[in-house]
Amino acid sequence: MYERLLTRRIASAARSVLLLGPRQVGKSTLLGSLRPDLTINLASPAAFRDYSSHPDRLEAELRAVPARVRTVLLDEVQRVPALFDVVQILLDETPRRFRFLLSGSSARKLRRGQANLLPGRIHMHHLHPLLARELGDDFQLERVLAQGTLPGISAEPDPELRAADLRAYTDIYLREEVQAEALVRNIGGYARLLDLAAASSGRILNLRALSQDSGISYETARRYFEVLEDTLMLFRVPAWSGSVRGSLLAHPKIYLFDLGVRNALLRRPLDRPLEDERGLLLEHLVATELHRRLGTLWPQATLFHFRTRQGAEVDFVVQDGRETWGIEVKHARAVDRRCLRGFEALAEHSPTLKRRIVVYLGPRRMKLGDAEVIPLREFLDELPV
Predict the structure, then answer these.
(1) What are phi and psi for residue 70, nearest 5 degrees?
(2) What is the pLDDT of residues 126-185, one digit of tens each?
(3) Which of 80, 105, 126 is the last residue of a domain?
(4) Final residue before a domain boundary, out of 106, 126, 146
(5) Are 153 and 92 in a shared domain?
(6) Residues 6 or more apart whose Cβ sits within 8 Å of residue 108
(7) Buried (b) or exposed (e) across 51-84, using 16+ Cβ within 10 A?
(8) What does the alpha-carbon distance between residue 335 and residue 14 come to, in Å, rounded to a whole number?
(9) Which residues are registered as beta bridge partners of 324?
(10) Domain of residue 328, residue span
(11) 223 and 356, same structural domain?
């Protein structure tokens, strides 16, 4: 089992926790490693039936448990949003009696169920596929670019089984389970949009073009994108606006949450990345590494991309407190000053630009003008945790 960086943050805190993340990223494993005294898995049909019909049953049961039962895990809690009200009652009336560990995979179902997310009583965290630092010696760039970093996929030693598991994940969960949870009605249009979203991953979002290509209305496409975001399968990197908005592009970039899922959806070979996609996939990898740190691991950071209408661009802009970092990603073992042009444009719009970073595949760290040129793995290992 891989050690997750989030585990020690959650274990050392006294507050109850809501842990959100896509399916099979390790939420149950992480919370189970904290050794709860009582676990209720709402993915079980029997448990779902019992608690959805009588959510007050949980209160009655917990008031009757012995004093040694203090930590309670409610797995897949989005299936029965009414249980949040029960948790609130118990936290308010007996604030030192229980610590709740809650997991969920759909923020949409929580909102649709009008769930009480217990502001001020519970800490919310997000769990993602594995970071390079969590993979440790198992981090192999070629494999990660092709197969991503879902924990179960990364732990499987047989490459053919890894590929089969990835394809099953995309076909069964991303398509059929989304339909089964009644998140979308037109599964054909949703599936076409999902494939187009995968093809657009790492690029600037043009939702109107995607809706036309998938044969669904713009409004339907917008709702389906909300489904993808709310089920945590896709994230946006907004455009950095700066002070002179008219000279900058305002559309976000979109990224699927895992490279292996992206490749499986597009029916790419899963043994190694396609040659003409290596640059895009490397940028995608860095995007996920940055995005997965936002919030708990890097709470003061926000992530953007930068592009002017004249074509100058920087792959990522990180605002960290009063500092701004510009980050360019190059799939090359050598770089030259041409890759610094975007930094000059960014500096004109951002007086707080503190670091200019070029991430590349070369072996050594060096300086190029005002820019830091950093090998990929060294850059990933230095990111905050």
Answers:
(1) -120, -40
(2) 999 999 999 999 999 999 999 999 999 999 999 999 999 999 988 876 665 566 555 566
(3) 126
(4) 126
(5) no
(6) 183, 226, 227, 230, 231
(7) beeebeebbeebeeeeeeeebbbbbbbbbbbbbb
(8) 48
(9) 319, 353
(10) 132-382
(11) yes
